[in-house]
Structure prediction request, 370 residues.
Amino acid sequence: MSDTVLDLDAPLPRVEPTYRIDQNFEWNFANGPRFDAPFPPVPQNALKDFFGIPVHSRFGIAASLLANSNWLGLYARLGFDILTYKTVRLTPRVAHPTPTWRFLDEKRTDVLEDVDAPQWAVEGIPDNPSEATVAGSLGVPSQPPSFWEGDIRRSRELIRPGQALIVSLVASVGPDTTTDSFLAEFEELAARVRAAGAQIVEANLSCPNVQRREGEAYRDPELAARIAAALRRGARDLPLLMKVGGIEDVGAMRALLRAVDGTMDGVIMMNGLSRPVIDTSGNATFGENRRRAGITGGAIYRFALRQVREAVAIVERDRLAIKVLGCGGITTPERARRFIDAGAYAALAATAVVWNPYLAVQLKRADPSL
Prediction:
């Protein structure tokens, strides 16, 4: 990494993506992040409260990119104040094989409302990749606890004053999994990440490209409530978040929020949209057994913002205590501000920060109040 520091008001250069999409996840885990560019001064804006933790902004990175302490340390230095350690499991799991990342034909994203309408993957990289729409088929890989427990401790040491560390987790589903064992795994994971140094615990209930029981637990309010109770036993007094996917029905959203209110402190809306993805020949881009993939980046912004507005309205009307965090298509400082103006407690980016690691600095320069 470069040791060069830019002047305070110097223009920010265009840089290479920190994640190599031509390499697999394991390569990026071991060799990344790629960043050989100047470090800009990070504006030290006034502190804000984030679940009892003082932060310099309510902007950061969702569970996605920060696969280990090397990744987390870079983005902490670049001024992202809410940092989410990528989802961990009790049992190790490798990522899906390449390809795992394809850009989409933006003209086709106008049919994203249809959950079964295929999206078209395109070759190459668009001119403005930080604002583009992406199909991802990575799964939820994880190192064993013998690695991530120590690495979370190191991550905690790397974050700076005015920053907060969230650790994301998910229980794994296998042939012998029962509901009781599923819940017990959430409880144990929460206890382990708390002991390792997490300041906030996040349950990922919504990955769009893994087994249905893992990836859509948020669609079952009763199960979500039981997961929340298990997490509370493990996390004790730490703040608890859950990350959910697209919720098409406002009644279902209300049932979920009411079910976890009083146990969960916050809900992150939203993870990627699960959609079929095909190439120009009509074949499944990632293979027939991975026909559906997670859609992230620019075009899901309208879905995420709408879902945040709906959730905030439910929270206010029903006088719930839960906070709503916005995530999805946050590619610019202006989009982050719109989430906050819609009532979101914080705004979290993911895909965009691979291609624009300066996004936090840009936001802090443009909008110190955020």
Notes: The chain has one domain: 55-366. The longest strand covers residues 82-88. The CA atoms of residues 173 and 211 lie 8 Å apart. Residues 179-196 form the longest helix (18 residues).
